[in-house]
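EI: anyone free to look at a 406-residue chain?
SC: sure, send it
EI:
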Amino acid sequence: MQIYKVGGAVRDRLLGRPVSDVDWLVVGATVEQMQAQGFRPVGADFPVFLHPRTSEEYALARTERKSGRGYGGFTFHASPDVTLEEDLIRRDLTINAMAEDEHGNLYDPYHGKSDLEQRILRHVSPAFAEDPLRVLRVARFAARYAPLGFRVADETLALMRQITDSGELQALTAERSWKEIERALMEAQPQVFIEVLRACGALKVLMPELDALFGVPQPAAHHPEIDSGIHTLSVLAQSALHQQPLAVRWACLLHDLGKGTTPEEEWPRHIAHEVRGLKLIKAVNQRFKAPRECQELALLVGEYHTHCHRALELRPLTLLELLQKFDVYRRPQRFEDFIAACEMDARGRLGLENRDYPQAQYLRGAAAAARAVDVKPLVEKGLTGQALGEALKGERLRALKAYKAG
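SC: here you go
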């Protein structure tokens, strides 16, 4: 039995990055031998075990053969005669196909270390094209390592295009796709994830609504970058730069989908794109079964982001309706996330990345003024039900008028 450290732990150590999870590979062992040593089996599809003391994952060396469509369409073979090289060749990228023994010796049959040094994301073997999930994984790695100067190898991008053209991407489940999207959005440069998907044609298959934004112009006076797709990538980049949470990043990605449906004769203006975008945002939300928090915020940002940009001009009644829509009294964080997404939208414009956004403080102040209205005096007057609701609304409107005037 030989035990090797494999995958990300080896890659990140060589890159000088912190190593969080360690995966172990066991060559020359049987399931029975592992269990006899106290390892607990956890893998449903292939033999994976938890170490009796550390609970780290140990997998038996295995080979795989394509047997169906999609990420799960593989038959695995694990036995003591599967070699280290045979196990490593089934992995996605050369930089993930390295191993270390207990003495720290590096095993690198597919030249992953050289690709690390050259900053290249390259597939290990032609079998890469058998797993459609790898299109998303490679795009995610590109987003993660973009700050270090990594790029996808031309031949790997060609294979990703081949997977896209094969129709295999449609076989991916919503859950698997979302897991990759979620992780990619939280990387240092999530816009690179979208750029790579677009470069291999996968964005048009996975999110045609987003792909449709590229090449659609906006008024240069407000958007010096002109292109709606480029603007969306810039907004997403700003959300990462400002370390926004997942829901904000998702909303940033989808906020302008309506612009992709504007008739060409109306370009570069996009009247009512906020409302037109709602059914598109809904479709993308449902396609990937995004978490409820992400879905709700994306729809609200899509519909109301221009309200936020015009916050200083809004009439007190419109302002109150906006606050009511967000339920700022019971869900203050959702309104904060909305403001954050709108600020990223304002900053995601060429040359305007560092411009002040006074609307953010103004809306926070408005929310605070509305929240400060005390319901107790109204209750003491004997008001209940609808009458109490109307009176409370009136008091909040008065507070917002005073706030706006002051």
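EI: The two ends are 76 Å apart (CA to CA).
SC: 👍
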